[in-house]
Design a protein that fits this description.
By secondary structure, the protein is an alpha/beta fold. Helices cover about 40% and strands about 15% of the residues. Helix 3 packs parallel to helix 4 and helix 8 runs parallel beside helix 9. The chain is globular and about 85 Å long. InterPro entries: LRR_dom_sf (IPR032675).
Length: about 550
């Protein structure tokens, strides 16, 4: 994927386009955003796209530019390209929006269309209505309005019936202010019966004056499970809104510390729809930790946990905070938390060691962020984490702030190498449906991720498969390597079957293992454990 950052880089690349960017047939994505001072290069860009329509993904976001001279060229490009699958445009220029919509109507390849800062006009909303009604190749549609909220309802009414009748859309994102409550009711009451439409994202809801009505309507219509509200509740007064399953996040940064914050955290087990939770822990650490642990024990949907922790006063290096141990143990027991964000200050070196041990043995966390940690704590963390980190196959991203001691570089590299290895497992396994049975690259990844339910969920999401379909594909692909001979043949140890020389002392050999014994061995052995280079060297 190629991104152009800033106008200077963009101009440089476009000036050298014939020798760098555009001759490459492997370029699949281009993202442009920011201020462009040399407007002629936009003409160069569009002309290049028209004569070399190979991009699969193109994005123009918040570009400061007079688009009027290029409206027709962009329309022609969108109308003619047969490679583009994803198109994103952020602009309030009505003429440009109309040109984009007209081009999309003639396009046959776009699968995902995203427009933001949309300005409602009768002509443009009618074009969107036609896209929803006529385009059979677009399963993902996102249109976010920049109109003054709640003043343009009637312009968007023409979208409701096409949305209800459409049987292709899988995901739709709209601004909640686009429709009047009666029109939302018409759509939401049909939503549970639409098999194709899996998710509706309603954004810009924080200023929506009828949020309580909307939550009630979602529950009464039975559409809560299919709707996400981009809404940040205010918990300074009440947690009532968290009963709505369409509200996925709760950030408690503004809640008054002390008894009020503790009371809110103690209510969290009642809200099982939460997927994102942010909590500040700056005082009353033990009681808050126990309340958080109680929620994590019961949480069934939470995937992102953001903790901002501050410990007052000096900490001895070997001191262990008991409340911190409670937090780590509760995170370790969680089967849902995949993204862990920690902003910590005042922690001891022992606390950093305990965190490293917890992360190393966790089989669910895929992303970890450490913020505001001192250099000494970071160094202690990476030194501890690097010991045996290669046994972890789920941690795919680790970001941190605060620096490291100079002699800690090798420990950091060991962790980085592991996360780099792990980050490729899910993309490899996600090719399970397209790859042939003989594709060892994919089968090795599938064999590995099949041991981790969290990774299988991510594979299903990336491959756009439901869990039952993925489970069937995994069983089918791994069937051939379940037996001793099948496994050893797949990894290249033998050509046909395993045959061992009899041991002089009569000990059991590999080919003496019965099916049950081999199945027990396979619980601890995956295809990736046998290094390809070792097998090839042996055969050579």
């Amino acid at each position: 994927m190629f991104s152009v950052l800033g106008h200077a880089t963009a101009q440089l690349l476009l000036k050298r386009s014939k020798t760098t960017l555009w001759v490459s047939s492997s370029l699949k994505g281009l993202h442009l955003w920011g201020r462009i001072t040399n407007e002629r290069m936009v003409g160069t860009l569009l002309n290049t796209l028209l004569h070399k329509p190979t991009l699969e993904e193109l994005s123009f976001e918040n570009i400061t530019l007079d688009w009027n001279p290029y409206v027709q060229a962009l329309k022609e490009y969108l109308s003619s390209t047969t490679a583009l699958k994803v198109f994103t445009m952020s602009t309030s220029n009505r003429s440009l929006q109309r040109a984009v919509l007209e081009g999309v109507l003639e396009n046959t390849s776009i699968e995902k269309l995203s427009l933001s800062r949309f300005k409602g006009t009768e002509e443009n909303t009618a074009l969107v209505s036609r896209i929803i009604r006529e385009k059979r190749a677009i399963p993902t549609l996102s249109i976010l309005s920049s109109d003054d909220p709640f003043e343009q309802h009637s312009l968007y009414d023409c979208w409701v019936q096409p949305l209800i009748q459409n049987d292709v859309l899988v995901e739709v994102t709209l601004s909640v202010s686009m429709l009047h409550t009666t029109k939302w009711s018409d759509f939401l009451r049909v939503l549970p019966t639409k098999q194709n439409l899996k998710m509706v994202n309603l954004m810009n809801t924080s200023s929506y004056p009828k949020i309580r009505w909307l939550c009630t309507e979602l529950k009464d219509s039975g559409s809560e499970e299919k709707v996400y509200l981009g809404y940040d509740p205010d918990f300074r007064q009440s947690t009532e809104q968290l009963h709505c399953k369409a509200i996925w996040g709760a950030n408690l940064w503004t809640v008054q510390p002390g008894d009020h914050l503790l009371a809110v955290v103690r209510q969290l087990p009642n809200f099982q729809g939460l997927r994102v939770l942010g909590i500040p822990i700056r005082s009353d650490h033990m009681r808050l930790s126990l309340a958080l642990a109680e929620f994590l024990r019961s949480a069934t949907a939470l995937h992102t946990l953001d903790l901002r922790i501050k410990v007052n006063g000096p900490q001895q290096a070997n001191a262990q905070n008991p409340w911190w141990k409670i937090i780590l143990e509760s995170i370790g027991r969680s089967k849902t938390v995949k993204n862990l964000h920690l902003t910590v200050s005042g922690m001891s070196i022992q606390d950093s060691h305990d965190l490293a041990d917890s992360v190393k043995h966790n089989t669910c966390i895929t992303e970890l962020y450490l913020g505001c940690t001192p250099k000494a704590n970071n160094t202690a963390f990476f030194r501890r984490l690097s010991q045996g980190i290669e046994e972890n196959y789920t941690l795919a991203s680790l970001k941190f702030e605060g620096g490291l001691d100079a002699d800690c570089g090798s420990h950091w590299l060991a962790v980085e190498e592991t996360t780099w290895r792990n980050s490729g497992l899910v993309p490899r396994a996600a090719r399970i449906k397209q790859a042939s049975k003989s594709d060892r690259y994919v089968t090795r990844a599938v064999d590995r991720v099949s041991r981790y339910p969290g990774l299988l969920e991510e594979v299903a999401r990336r491959a756009k498969l439901d869990q039952s379909e993925l489970a069937a594909l995994v069983r089918d692909r791994l069937m051939a390597i379940q037996s001793l001979d099948g496994f050893m043949g797949f990894v290249g140890v033998v050509k046909e079957r395993v045959m061992c020389h009899s041991a002089e002392d009569g000990r059991v050999q590999l080919d003496d293992l019965n099916e049950d014994c081999w199945r027990h061995v396979r619980r601890y052995l995956v295809a990736d454990d046998v290094r390809c280079d070792t097998v090839e060297l042996h055969h050579a």
